[in-house]
Write a structure and sequence with these properties.
The chain is built from 27 helices and 35 strands. Strand 10, helix 10 and strand 11 form a beta-alpha-beta unit. It has about 950 residues and is an alpha/beta fold. The structure holds 2-acetamido-2-deoxy-beta-D-glucopyranose (4 copies). It comes from Daedalea quercina L-15889. One of its GO terms (cellular component) is cytoplasm.
Length: about 950
């Protein structure tokens, strides 16, 4: 794979050169095979058999033996194909005029202005396509003027469970992991592929055209993966979705001169396979070695057999058929170098183990997936058998378990600097593959070069899966899989205007917005050289505490804008005029002047002031995280690092010593400060977290608001508000029906029980306390609206109610507005992961409106959340994306409010008090990709943190 990547980097047309090599090798091999066949047909290959007929099994055996030396890859005449094997008759040719095309050539640096002609499922030509070219088409060709729009190859996802881990999640369509043992190379993801998954169309709408669907990671060897194209097929079957399926899917052995096709095999090490069988890492690695030892013995017996067969030694082979075993044949193929081994592996110990195994049994590893510590051991990667594996990563999704704890957003960049191929992947539905491009954008923000960032979701995964000969590039002869974008693909919010798979346009009537010229250029990104170096220096745990804190005057120079909180909103109070050099003075953590340099900066002030040039930066309210357990512990999957779950009186007995059913738990008592997720969020401008007690079912307790930069609860300003709101969840549960949960809520509100619970729920009825209900379903929201009315009637008060999750809220926007209910969409980019929330409004290009836009249009107070603590740091990007996607003019003020003031108001935050933290960004405002948070101004703590 490395060789292929390198050859494509030399700038020569890869396809042609490869074909040439292939032809000469193929001619040589073909001649040998013909000669052998000729000799066999004469039955005079050697002395031994010269006068005897061959045994009946000889033909099959010789055919198997001959096939052993074949290496996988495209057939000899592949590049002369006139039509794709996936061509759908009747598909019209398309001429896309005037695109700005990222071709994938020249190490991903080639961008050309070109026309592209698609026909018969392939890219027929690219460049300037004149009339003479089109003569044969007459009027049949559909011509589209792209007007300079960006075009890339279709996005390729190297790690997906699309179709096997289905959306919406249903017990009847969960085929990711078999639990029948650690070693299952004979299982095939193809056999469980659900064709009705709601995600196919959504992922296509995000530009994904091809995915490698892998079994899960519950086993050391989980089974074989399959590459699919995501479009609908006339046949409607899993088989018809496959791209170059290996012949082994039905044990058909074609003409032995045909090269085999690449196969894919899932391996996993570390926590996941250990967790399932009560194994340790030692057990898992032994399971691998034992399996490979079995496969090696079969391989050796085949090789020995073929030595005899080739020598015509049929006496020795008289009653012996060719040795093979259907259960182990795929693993034997791994040892023959004909399988792309895709290894889920996180930690140094696991990577080291697998590289040792690859050398012991002599097979190459195509890629390590997740591999959160790979960037710490590049030299170990280079010691893998045959070539260094590619690394397939998440951009910022880390620390959810121990082996992800040292994950770094700088890993893609660092690995690329070591020449390791970098792939960004979704692990769909762990992250939604519709937004795989977003992962490449984040990798780009944190330093992966532009050419490699686009390649990381196109040409690089194509090469890693052995499909680089037909997908991953925009080149003549390659499959007609393309995305036409509404902006530069790495600009935040980039959205397909059209997606072609096998030459077929996938978006029936796409909704498109025209983005301004500034979105058509390569986005600028901040410099993170020091942070990246520190990630390695500190083995993934660089210090995160602010480097300097000061109460002395700080002069922020070249400030372009200042946004502040005012009247429960965000207002822009300063905006530098064109040539004006804006200055903001902060003393004791309070802004004392903002305006031109000459008005604010006096000579006396400069004497003991800290001067920070923010290069066109901005000051704005800090963001507030909600939706995850941020603040309740360090590593989600490690109970010893977490607060744990509250008792749920609906389904279990609450200990009497705790006060029984009337007890209300306060999240504030379970906070742990200084977690890496919180400090990283702080450094990204998310200065507050609001968190409900962690709960599994209906009952949560009192939320709390805390400062993400604090190191302990006694720090000044660590806890901003002890109790914010009462939180409960109403969702389908295996125990305690939805109707039971509603009945419980009704009772708690209308007939408050003894104890704390009674006080708090009475507070809700009296309009003093906000009730926050987590649910996605429009049906449940409707019921909550009725319940709210009922309670308001009983108490004669307005009840403050907020719905979080709320994926189906757009269906009831008008009613929600009338009822005065607020909404926090915790999954800012909607995805139908559960049945109860599947009626999403998908947004561009599938729908003109987004849920957020619909809710805002009704003047509903709306906020945005993040579901995992590691993603809290991405809140500014999420807000920016949502604002762009809303497809109408959302002002910066409104957008910032979605991630700050609105979230607090909706969750019972006390926003009247002064002293909220402000975030200072360099190079742009908080919503810009190019900006970097350099300071936090804290009136409450009377200081400035310089990061
Ligand atoms: C490919 O691009 C990367 C990043 O721009 C660069 O570091 C690398 O040297 C390039 N490789 C070749 C072969 O030019
Ligand atoms: C086996 O699968 C291949 C596709 O990979 C197909 O062309 C062939 O017809 C199948 N053979 C049988 C016997 O089903
Ligand atoms: C800042 O605070 C310190 C200590 O509270 C005080 O002595 C000083 O006067 C304050 N400076 C300003 C400019 O308010
Ligand atoms: C929302 O508020 C704006 C401004 O106050 C008002 O003009 C508009 O009519 C309101 N929309 C709805 C649906 O109430």
């Amino acid at each position: 794979m490395m060789e292929k990547v390198l050859s494509s980097q030399s700038g020569q047309p890869v396809g042609e050169r490869r074909t040439e090599n292939l032809v000469s090798r193929r001619v040589a091999r073909g001649t040998l095979v013909l000669l052998a066949l000729f000799l066999v047909s004469l039955q005079v290959p050697t002395l031994y058999t010269a006068f005897r007929p061959l045994p009946p099994h000889a033909a099959i055996a010789l055919s198997r033996c001959r096939a052993l030396s074949l290496t996988p890859g495209p057939s000899v005449d592949f590049y002369r194909r006139k039509e794709s094997d996936r061509f759908v008759p009747g598909t019209k040719p398309y001429l896309l005029r005037n695109g700005k095309v990222w071709t994938g050539a020249e190490n991903g640096t080639e961008v050309i202005r070109a026309d592209i002609l698609l026909d018969k499922g392939i890219i027929k030509s690219i460049g300037h396509i004149g009339h003479s070219h089109l003569k044969t088409y007459r009027d049949n060709v559909v011509t589209v003027d792209l007007k300079g729009a960006w075009v890339t190859p279709g996005i390729i996802d190297l790690h997906s469970h699309l179709g096997v881990d289905s959306a919406p999640r249903l017990l009847g369509a969960t085929d990711t992991n078999s639990h029948h043992g650690p070693i299952l190379p004979w299982l095939r993801a193809l056999d469980g592929l659900n064709t009705h998954d709601a995600a196919y169309a959504l992922s296509v709408a995000g530009g994904v055209t091809t995915a490698l669907v892998l079994p899960g990671s519950a086993n050391a060897i989980g089974g074989q993966g399959f590459t699919i194209k995501l479009r609908e097929t006339a046949e409607r079957t899993p088989t018809s979705m496959l791209l170059e399926p290996p012949y082994q899917i039905n044990a058909s052995f074609p003409d032995q001169t045909d090269r085999p096709r690449w196969r894919q095999m899932k391996h996993a090490c570390g926590e996941n396979p250990s967790r399932v069988y009560g194994n340790t890492r030692m057990d898992t690695i032994w399971a691998f070695r034992q399996a490979y030892d079995t496969a090696r013995k079969i391989k050796e017996s085949q090789d020995a057999y073929c030595v005899d067969a080739d020598a015509g030694n049929w006496d020795a082979l008289k009653d012996k058929p060719y040795p093979e075993d259907l259960q182990w044949e795929s693993l034997v193929d791994v040892l023959r170098g004909r399988v792309k081994v895709q290894v889920h592996c996180y930690e140094t110990v696991d990577i080291d183990d697998l590289i040792r195994i690859s050398n012991e049994f002599e097979f190459p590893i195509a890629a390590f997936h997740h591999a959160h510590e790979a960037y710490l051991v590049p030299d170990t990667l280079k010691k893998a058998y045959d070539h260094p594996p590619a690394i397939a990563m998440f951009a910022t999704h880390s620390r959810y378990k121990r082996e992800a704890y040292r994950g770094s957003e700088f890993a893609p960049r660092i690995l690329a600097e070591h020449g390791i191929p970098v792939v960004m992947k979704s692990d769909h539905p762990v992250t939604d593959s519709r937004y795989l491009l977003y992962q490449a954008q984040l990798a780009f923000v944190y330093g992966l070069p532009e050419n490699l960032a686009i390649a990381s979701i196109s040409s690089t995964p194509a090469e890693v899966m052995g499909m680089g000969h037909r997908i991953g590039y925009v080149k003549e002869g390659w499959d007609a899989d393309l995305v036409v974008w509404d902006s530069h693909p790495l600009a935040l919010g980039a959205t397909p205007k059209q997606v072609f798979i096998d030459g077929i346009p996938q978006l029936k009537s796409p909704h498109v917005v025209n983005k301004p010229a500034s979105f058509q250029r390569t986005p600028k990104v901040p410099n993170f050289d020091k942070e990246a170096a520190d990630a390695v220096k500190y083995e993934g745990l660089p210090p995160l505490i602010p480097s300097k804190t000061t109460s002395s005057p700080v002069v922020f120079m070249d400030v372009k804008s200042v946004f502040v909180r005012a009247d429960n909103r965000v207002r822009e109070v300063y905006s530098a005029q064109d040539a004006e050099l804006g200055a903001v003075i902060v003393q004791n953590g309070t802004i004392t002047c903002m305006g031109t340099y000459s008005t604010c900066v006096t000579p006396g002030l400069l004497a003991d002031a800290e001067i920070v040039n923010v290069k066109g930066g901005s000051i704005s309210p800090g963001f507030t995280s909600f939706g995850s357990n941020l603040g309740l512990g360090a590593i989600g999957a490690e109970p010893s690092t977490m607060d744990g779950y509250v008792f749920d009186p609906l389904v279990q007995k609450v200990p009497a010593i705790l006060g029984g059913d009337g007890t209300v738990i306060r999240a504030v008592d379970g906070l742990s400060f200084g977690t890496r997720d919180a400090l990283i969020a702080y450094r990204a401008g998310v200065t507050k977290g609001i968190t409900a007690p962690a709960h599994r079912g209906f009952y949560a307790g009192l939320g709390t608001s805390f400062f993400t930069g604090a190191t302990n609860r006694l720090d000044r300003g660590a806890v901003l508000q002890e109790a914010t709101a009462v939180h409960i969840t109403v969702r389908p549960a295996s125990f305690g029906s939805i109707s039971t949960q509603i009945a419980t809520l009704r009772r708690l509100l209308l007939r408050p029980i003894e104890g704390d619970s009674g006080d708090w729920f009475r507070g809700v009825g009296e309009g003093r306390v906000t009730l926050v209900v987590d649910t996605d379903s429009a049906d449940i929201i409707a019921t909550l609206i009725l319940l709210k009315r009922e309670v308001e009637k009983a108490y004669g008060n307005i009840v403050k109610m907020t719905v979080t999750g709320a994926q189906e809220a757009h269906i009831l926007a008008k009613e929600i507005a009338e009822a005065g209910v607020g909404v926090i969409q915790t999954l800012s980019k909607p995805f139908p992961s559960e049945w109860e929330g599947q009626r999403i409004l998908p947004g561009l290009p599938l729908s003109e409106q987004t849920s957020i836009a619909v809710l805002l249009a009704q003047n509903i107070t709306v906020g945005i959340g993040t579901l995992s603590p590691a993603e809290a740091r991405n809140l500014p990007f999420e807000v920016a994306w949502v604002a762009l996607d809303a497809g109408r003019a959302i002002s910066k003020e409104e957008a910032i409010a979605l991630g700050s003031t609105n979230v607090e108001i909706l969750l019972g935050g006390d926003i009247d008090t002064d002293g909220h933290d402000m975030v200072v960004t360099e190079g742009g405002d908080i919503l810009d990709m190019q900006s970097k948070v350099v300071a936090v101004v804290s009136p409450a703590r009377q200081l400035v943190d310089l990061l």
